UniProtKB/TrEMBL annotation, chains A, B:
This is Universal stress protein adenine nucleotide alpha hydrolase-like family. One of its GO terms (molecular function) is hydrolase activity. Belongs to the universal stress protein A family. The lineage of its organism: Archaea, Methanobacteriati, Methanobacteriota, Methanomada group, Methanobacteria. SUPFAM superfamilies: Adenine nucleotide alpha hydrolases-like. InterPro entries: Rossmann-like_a/b/a_fold, Universal_stress_UspA, UspA. Keywords: Hydrolase. It holds the Pfam family Usp. It comes from Methanobrevibacter smithii CAG:186. CDD domains: USP-like. Residues 1-139 form the UspA domain.
Length: 139, 139
């Protein structure tokens, strides 16, 4: 059993499918942290600052929507918190996992509708190569 | 919770370290299958058939030792069976997982004292790319 479990989500069906099973892995007084990472756009010559700000806000809104949707999948009796951050997904996931000292990252093995050479998504791939504790790849 | 969990072991400390935690993930009437894969030597011009047979037998003995050692780590009340097979480790692990229709493979993320470019061992790496269901990488 784990005291802290990090559950990243990109809002995809894959991320949500059966990830709720991680509730079974949580110690009685444990905490589940749901995280969605919004990509940050940098200014581009063909876009106005206003457009960029709007897009960044829409990414943040989407990330918030993702974590709320995921939270609703868990037993309401569990201690579930949510986080929305801006950054690169894999790096941010591992950073949060380390800062929060989670014992397990439970992540979908497939990415957001991507067709990859391998079976697992690139974010999951990076996470398992960077995180020094347990990772549950959920299919 | 999982009805069937496959726990491969190469006899390394890494493989045994905390892998026993998977007992918590097992459904009440579930089964843990511990597997060790012995490599098979093929005849070599500088070795007699007798020597090859002896080596193959010693690999099988070691694999049997590995699964017995791992089995002793689990709660005796759990339904734990063991398997020893000859073959390539990653391929054999996935083949058994598919044949036995396990829901989870729980595998150590580090190999047998290997220094790898990445954090996870090559067998675990191959397993996560081939197995189409959940994988717990235990650190």
């Amino acid at each position: 059993m784990y005291k802290k479990i990090l559950v990243p989500t990109d809002g995809s069906e894959a991320a949500e499918k059966e990830v709720e099973k991680v509730g079974d892995l949580l110690a009685e007084d444990g905490e589940i942290i749901i995280l969605s990472v919004a990509s940050e756009l940098t200014p581009h010559q063909f876009q106005s600052k206003e457009d960029i700000d709007k897009l960044n806000q829409s990414f943040l809104d989407e990330a918030q929507f993702n974590v709320d949707k995921m939270k609703a999948k868990f037993d309401p009796n569990l201690n579930v918190t949510t986080k929305v951050l801006v950054g690169f997904p894999a790096e941010t996931i591992v950073k949060v996992a380390e800062e929060e000292d989670v014992g397990l990252i439970a992540i979908s093995s497939s990415g957001k509708g991507r067709v990859t050479k391998f079976f697992i998504g690139s974010v999951a791939e990076k996470v398992i190569h960077s995180f020094k504790k347990d990772v549950l790849l959920v299919h």
